[in-house]
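Example record

The entry below shows one chain as it appears in the dataset: sequence first, then structure tokens.
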Amino acid sequence: VTGTVRPVQHATIAPKVMGVIEEMPVALGQSVRTGEILATIKAGEIPARVAQAQSQLNQAQRDLARERDLLAKHASTSEMVKGLEDRLAMTQAMMREAEVMVGYMTVRAPFDGVVARKPANVGDLAAPGQPLLELEGLGNFQIAAGIPDSAASRLVPGATLAAEVPAAGAAFTAALVEVSPGSDPYARTVIVK
């Protein structure tokens, strides 16, 4: 049975925010390390959200401090202070959310790997779920093959099979790790790894 050697780690990298790709300092075939910047996205509304959240947070802190001072002088109610404490908690959460969104403007490598595909470029519009590039890991590899569905019933995960990679001049035994529960109705094959 003929199969395809693939890295175990493979990821299609897509942004979580929409904006124009400002930088993409990687090239096809380039090795990258975990955490390395793959792309930066310019999304002007996100820094604006941070500024807005910071302004609301500052206002909530001032209002709460003033109302606590008034409560100490018996010129306010504890219910008013409690409402402002809740507003402060909400604005703090809005600030944290806005700061997280800023982090999404920088796309980083999730693992050490090689840029295997790069369908996007600087200047392109990036959108959530739209692939920027694909990474393939450098470590472990696996062989994926379509075997006749008539033979699949005899295979169980953990079985040891003979494998050969002629291009590398390698022959070895490999453990079967996955057997697809469904078969391709046209080719009458089951994918195994």
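Notes for this example: Residues 2 and 166 are 11 Å apart (CA to CA). The chain has a mean pLDDT of 92.
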